[in-house]
Amino acid sequence: MGYAPSEPSFKYWRNKLRKESVEALNWVDKIPKEKWTQAYDGGRRWGHMTSNLVEAMNSVYKEIRSLPITALVKATYSKTATLFGTRGMDAMTVLASGQVYSVPCQKRLTDAMTKAHSHVVTRHDRQRFAVKETEDPREGRPKDTFKVHLEEKWCDCGKFQALHLPCSHVIAACFHAHLDYQVYIDDVFKVANVCRVYEHTFQVVQGQMYWPTYEGPKLFPRPDMKRVKKGRPKKNRIRTEMDEFGKKERLCGLCRMPDHNRNNCPNVAGPSS
Q: Is residue 51 very low, low, confident or very high in pLDDT (cuts 50, 70, 90)?
C-alpha cells in the first residue's frame, strides 16, 4: 500500500489487506495517508519511502555506537567527511565521462524504454494519448490501458507523478509523437546537480597544538560505568519498543518455571544420602 504509486493501486492492496485482517486495516486507517504512501503524498517523496533518519543511519554507525561521547563525535565527523569525499569524486567522474543523468536515473529509463517498445499508443491530440500494454508489466497487476497527458505531466499508472521521471507509457507516447522524452526528466536527476550536493566539504580538524586554550569545567569518566572487557562484545542493532512486542517469558532450564534460572533453581534435587 505504501509503495503503490496511484490511488487505484492503493485501493487494490487495501482491499487485499481487508480480506486478510480487518483489525490491521483499522489500525492502518488511523495513520494519515499523506505520511506513508506515495499515492497521496502529492509527489513529495520522489520514490523514497524511508522517513526515519535514525533507521537509515543505524547500519552506518554500527561499529562506533559503543564508543565514548568524544570519540563518537569524532568518528561520526570522520565517516561523514569520508562519505562526502567519496561520493563527490564519484559524481565528478560520472560528469567528466559526459553522462547527463545519474546512474540510478539511467537504470530506470532503460527499464522503461524496454517496456515501451511493447505498448500500443493511440493519439487523441498533441498532448493526450491512450497507451495499451500488450505484455505482462511484471508489477503484480494485470495489463491495462493508461491515459497520458504530457502537458499536465500525468499518467494513470502514477509513476510519472511519484518519481518525476517518464514511465514506460510516457516514453511510448513520446516515441509515437516523435517527441523528446528527456524534457520530462526533472533536473534533480542531472549529474551536475548531484555534484552540487557535495560541493560543501568538511574542514580538516587541525592538531591539538593549534587549538585555543580551554577554560571551563573538566569532566572525568565514572569508573563504575566503564564497560567490562570480559567476553565477546556484542554489535547488535539498537533495539526499540518494537522488539518488545511478543517477547517471550524466560523460563528456567530445569523446571521450566519463571523468575529464576538453572543456577539458582529452588526445585533442583539435592545430593543423594
A: low
Q: Is residue 221 domain-resident?
A: no
Provide the whole-model pTM: 0.67
Is the distance from CB of 157 to CB of 167 less than 8 angstroms? yes
How many folded domains does the chain comprise? 2
Which tens digit of pLDDT belongs to each residue from 69-128? 888 888 888 888 888 888 889 999 988 998 999 988 999 999 999 999 999 999 998 899
Q: Which of 86, 59, 64 is nearest to 75 (CA)?
A: 64
Please choose, from the candidates 100, 115, 272, the residue with its C-alpha nearest in 3D space to the C-alpha of residue 186: 100
Q: Which residue type sits at 64?
A: I
Q: Is the dihedral of CA 108, 55, 9, 137 positive or negative?
A: positive
CB 155 within 8 A of CB 170: yes
Full residue range of the structural domain in which residue 161 is found: 103-184
Is residue 60 over pLDDT 80?
no
Last residue of a domain, one of 51, 76, 92: 51
In this structure, is residue 165 part of a structural domain?
Answer: yes
In a 3-state reduction of DSSP, which class is residue 105? Answer: helix
Final residue of a domain: which of 124, 149, 184? 184
Residue type, 42: G
The model's pLDDT over 156-195, given as tens digits with 9 standing for 90+, comes to: 999 999 899 999 999 999 999 999 999 999 999 999 999 9
Q: Is residue 141 part of a domain?
A: yes
Between the alpha carbon of residue 8 and those of residues 2, 13, 21, 23, 65, the distances in Å are 13, 9, 20, 22, 43
